[in-house]
Design a protein that fits this description.
This protein has 181 residues and is mainly α. It has 8 helices and no strands. It has a domain of 125 residues. The longest helix is centred in the first third of the chain and has 25 residues. InterPro entries: TAT_signal (IPR006311).
């Protein structure tokens, strides 16, 4: 007699480790493939010091979702552009190794081959529905794979630090600004 599905664990510890190892190898291979194929250009987009043109569509889809509730709808476009500028400044001051890791994350999220399976967004970022972006962030935040949880945490920290660095964000959180000296 076979045990019922409720009596057997859905995924054993060994199975989870194998899956995590496979996912890590997949992401590393995809990132390496992107860099070797030229998808991962290190040339900054016009007007930016570190952000590349292929990073911008993803970030322009992500930032409004992350800032939802903190920015009025009529000011969202300006907030997104300002946050991109702050993010660019922050990335430009990272160590070369940290910048490389950030770019690898952006590459994995920007490539169609990896974007669909990892995010659930099969089309381009320009056409991504905000609810689909929210779902992707929720999936990564609650993932059983530590690599995806770290990716979520990195994205959240980068965007939030870039936003709260900006003067226009301070009123929303009650910060009066730095003291006058």
């Amino acid at each position: 007699m076979h045990p019922s599905l409720t009596e057997t664990p859905a995924l054993s510890r060994r199975g989870l480790l194998k899956f995590s190892l496979g996912a890590t190898a997949f992401l590393a291979t995809a990132g390496l493939g992107a860099s070797l194929s030229g998808c991962s250009s290190s040339v900054p987009a016009g007007g930016y010091a570190a952000l590349r043109s292929n990073d911008l569509p993803f970030l322009r889809a992500l930032i409004p979702v992350m800032l939802d509730g903190a920015v009025a709808a009529d000011k969202m476009a300006a907030a997104v552009e300002g946050t991109l500028q702050s993010l660019d400044q922050g990335l430009d001051h990272l160590s070369p190794e940290m910048l490389k890791l950030s770019r690898q994350l952006f590459d994995v999220l920007g490539m169609a081959v990896t974007r669909g399976p990892l995010t659930g967004i099969w089309g381009s970022w320009e056409n991504a529905d905000p609810d689909a972006v929210r779902h992707f962030l929720e999936r990564w935040r609650n993932s059983s794979l530590s690599l995806l949880r770290m990716g979520h945490s990195s994205l959240l920290q980068m965007v939030m630090m870039a936003w709260y660095k900006r003067v226009e964000s301070w009123a929303h959180c009650g910060y009066p600004g730095p003291p006058s000296v």
